[in-house]
Amino acid sequence: MHRERIRTDGGVETTTDPWTETRTDLDGQVALVAGGTDGIGKATATRLAELGATTVVVGSTPERGHEAVEAIVEESNNDAVEYVQADFSLMSEIRQLAEEFRGNYDRLDALVHTAGILPYEREMTEEGIERSFAINYLSRFLLTNLLVDMLEDGGPTGVVNVAAAGANSVELLDLDDLSSERFFTDPEEGDHMTRGQNALDQAQVANDIFGLELADRVEGTGVSSTVIHPGAVDTDIRMKADDGWRQVDEMLRSEMDVVPPELVAETVVPLATVTNPSEINGKFFQTGRQVVEFQDGVRDPELRQDLWEKSAELSGLADED
Questions:
Q1: The pTM is what?
Q2: 13-16: strand order across its sheet
Q3: pLDDT range class, residue 2, cuts 50, 70, 90
Q4: If DSSP codes are grouped into helix, strand and coil, which group holds residue 19?
Q5: CATH number of 5-233+261-310
Q6: How would you class 229 by CB atoms within 10 Å of its CB: exposed for 0-12, middle for 13-18, buried for 19 or more?
């Protein structure tokens, strides 16, 4: 396989990996897109539906969800698109989501995680979990674990996490402070936007570690676990935060080339529907299918095990084992 070394602006070493064995006819396949009502998730759901998949779109706002389904159906010319409401910050609703999915479908061929927020203040949920960490990471951990047996039964199947894919240092992850108390309360962490970004980065590092650990756990089952860093994308994640982040969004758009969500989906969908999962399992990608060489700290088996156990405890998964 031809591989060409590339250097990105950030100095991250990547390789071009022209894997092409992906399914182009998804008729009879079932895909679940968590966070599929707008942005990258909606673009991904649209492309999956265009290829013929029965596509389940999950979001927290019913009005937006139904509007998204109507748009996806119209653009894809596929009526097999369903919206399911779930609050990603509550693990009880993630359990309800998994139970409802199992009741309605007997297979799962692709699971794509795109749900995320940019926090600007620390907010604890009624379950005692910091809200942004729950949405940006813990919901992904729990939903994947609750549905992984369906993925294993139907291989080849794929789990894709849209996250940071090696862009952040593992030092940002504090297993003793997953609620980000330090980020939001320590004046030395900077202004509220810096604190919010640090909290987001901690969740993204957790997604990187989870993606790699999951890859090891599903190796040989016909399931692939990959993580993709989308880059600067034309979405409204900052516009949903506060005035400070909206100003940052305007600045970024004026100074950087942002890519449309549809371009990111062109990498996400092949990752989720690859026919040779062992070729990509445990790899990190950027938009454009470039393979990112993740940081060595992500490989630390003790860190990966500790995060898995902490995540199982926080999400309540440990109580079900």
A1: 0.86
A2: 5-7, 13-16, 290-292, 284-286, 223-229, 157-162, 110-113, 30-34, 54-59, 81-85
A3: very low
A4: coil
A5: 3.40.50.720
A6: buried
